[in-house]
Amino acid sequence: MFEPITRTSTSTAVFDQIASRVLDGELSAGTSLPSERRLAEAFGVSRPVVREAVQKLSQAGLIDIRHGESTSVRDFRRSAGPELLGQLLVRNGVPDWSVARSVLEARQTIGIHIACLAAQRATAQSAQAIRDALPPLFDSDDPVDLQVSALTFWECVVDAADSIAFRLIFNSLRHAYEPTMTAMATVMIAEVSRSDLYESLSAAIASHDADAAESAAATLLGAGTAAIIAVIEDLQQHDSE
Q: Which of 32, 65, 111, 225 lies deepest, with the highest CB count within 10 Å?
């Protein structure tokens, strides 16, 4: 069931193997994990390494540790946090488009509110930082570079919104999304090529026009979401043929 770890004996490698099997459904909710000793033997690592990995799995909401009882798998849909989105988004090197859609839908909803807050709270300094993030969105036609520039732009917008809660949510979504940028390049070009909308959003925030900021953000972020939905619909149609 588990593969010996030959290249590195780290708790992260153990965590990744077990987490992958939980997320794939190979280890379903309620399943008891083997004992610490047996896991160490299966992975070919020391028990302290396994113990550390098990603690990480518990912190991630993937397993339930009860002293005196067996360690069991939890339903991650009910117990895990957004830090798992990165592992869910790409499975075996291939994007899960349904997860991608959910990430972009969440990003769209949250991004609109962040844009409004930024328009209400932006200082001269934070508004200038947003303007300074615009040139790379005009100067490149590489879809991966444009995605990187778009994330930098939105980071400045989040900073202008001055909300630690939204900042942490943004961090989780960004960390989940960044590893997929190459795979998502041809899809997300529909959004990241819209330099005119980034400029409109920047201007709305600088002028403290919350309504205009909301409109620009909704149109901009909606472009990426619509592109992903189109991909999913094409895949579903292909599967039904």
A: 111
Residue with tokens 């939905």: 229
- Asked if residue 171 and residue 135 are part of one domain, the reply reads yes
173 vs 111: CA distance, rounded Å: 11
End-to-end C-alpha distance for the chain, whole angstroms: 35
Residue 19 lies in a domain: yes
Same domain, 71 and 121: no
DSSP character for 74?
Answer: -
In this prediction the pTM is: 0.76
CA distance 21 to 72: 13
H-type alpha helices, 122-209: 124-132, 135-139, 143-161, 164-177, 181-192, 195-206
User: Do residues 84 and 57 make contact, with C-beta atoms less than 8 angstroms apart?
Assistant: no
pLDDT tens-digit readout, 74-133: 999 898 887 788 788 777 667 787 888 888 888 899 999 999 999 999 999 999 999 999
Question: Quick one: which of 203, 210, 121 has its CA closest to 160?
Answer: 121
Q: Where are the beta strands (DSSP E) in the chain?
A: 63-64, 72-73, 90-91, 94-95
Residue 114 belongs to some domain of the structure:
yes
Amino acid at 144: V
How far is 92 from 2, CA to CA, in rounded Å?
16
Q: Within 13 Å of residue 18, how many CA atoms lie on the same side as its CB?
A: 34
pLDDT tens profile 136-160:
999 998 999 999 999 999 999 999 9
